[in-house]
């Protein structure tokens, strides 16, 4: 999750799926991905949703806050606005879910 247009979520998902970063950013509204990760000798199946960060899709965020087990919030280090959006998302998650700091 994060501000629209920064591409961090899409980039992170692409890296998890392909073990490399891509050079072309293609904005999404909502994309679902399944990734198998191995940690030690255990295998984990992750179901990841790449959400739209644009304000016009902010109403959908409450649904994600309620239904997801974990969240990755991204922001651009060159955009204070995207950092503010990340803070707002974290607060929104906190209003809906009991959070454990990792």
UniProtKB/TrEMBL annotation:
Q: Which UniProt keywords apply?
A: GTP-binding, Nucleotide-binding
Which InterPro entries does the entry link to?
Answer: P-loop_NTPase, Small_GTP-bd, Small_GTPase, Small_GTPase_Ras-type
**Keyword match Plastid:** no
Q: Is Nucleotide-binding there in the keyword field? A: yes
Name one cellular component (GO) term: membrane
Signal peptide range in chain numbering:
none
One short Pfam name that applies is Ras
Q: Which SMART domains match?
A: RAS (SM00173), RHO (SM00174)
Q: What is this protein called?
A: Uncharacterized protein
């Amino acid at each position: 999750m994060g501000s629209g247009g920064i591409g961090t979520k899409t980039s992170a998902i692409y890296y998890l799926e392909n073990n490399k970063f891509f050079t072309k950013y293609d904005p999404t509204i909502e994309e679902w991905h399944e990734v198998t990760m191995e940690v030690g000798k255990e295998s984990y199946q992750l179901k990841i949703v790449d959400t739209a960060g644009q304000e016009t899709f902010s109403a959908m965020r409450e649904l994600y806050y309620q239904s997801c087990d974990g969240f990755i919030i991204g922001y651009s280090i060159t955009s204070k606005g995207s950092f503010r959006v990340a803070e707002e998302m974290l607060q929104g998650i906190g209003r809906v879910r009991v959070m454990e700091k990792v």
